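Milestone 3.1: sequence recovery, worked example.
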């Protein structure tokens, strides 16, 4: 225990130390968030090779680049991809941007109610939501099954909207117009 006279400057020094510590922790938190984003790249949104446009088969070559999962029909297309990666990554970004919205508030894999921490990704022009990225394995086992669920749910929601009198459904050529109507 020292006298009060020498306590004041020490207190100031400690204050500065804790401020620095707080900033350090904050920076650490930001770095952590970056790591998580890196560890979970956005799932590949297309059903075909982003370079050749070929359907993806057993030769599919998968890797991560710039936060995206990338799939090529085979490793033979990797040199072509690496010639202009930005061009191909832009295609993936565009697929994410132009995807049709997820129609319901429940997880497409397990059917549980979604909350604000749910995980969103795009596949085959459709936005999907699941409780947690760990459910991607289930999704990837049979993506077409979930595409069918999405289509059925979207059709049902559109029908319910029409029945509620909110959106008048134009006969025949309604397909696209009801999808994009968000107001
Ligand atoms: Zn779920």
């Amino acid at each position: 225990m020292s006298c009060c006279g020498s306590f004041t400057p020490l207190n100031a020094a400690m204050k500065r130390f804790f401020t620095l510590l707080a900033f350090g922790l904050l920076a650490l938190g930001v770095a952590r968030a970056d790591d998580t984003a890196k560890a979970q790249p956005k799932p590949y949104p297309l059903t075909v090779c982003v370079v050749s446009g070929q359907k993806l088969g057993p030769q599919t070559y998968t890797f991560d680049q710039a936060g995206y999962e990338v799939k090529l029909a085979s490793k033979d297309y990797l040199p072509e991809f690496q010639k202009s990666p930005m061009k191909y990554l832009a295609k993936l970004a565009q697929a994410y941007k132009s995807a049709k919205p997820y129609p319901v508030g429940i997880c497409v894999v397990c059917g549980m109610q979604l909350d604000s921490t749910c995980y969103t990704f795009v596949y085959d022009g459709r936005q999907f939501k699941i409780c947690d990225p760990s459910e991607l394995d289930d999704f990837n086992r049979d993506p077409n099954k979930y595409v069918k669920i999405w289509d059925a749910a979207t059709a049902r929601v559109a029908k319910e909207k029409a029945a509620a009198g909110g959106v008048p459904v134009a006969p025949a050529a309604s397909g696209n117009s009801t999808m994009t109507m968000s107001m």
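The first helix runs from residue 4 to 39. Residues 41-98 form one domain.
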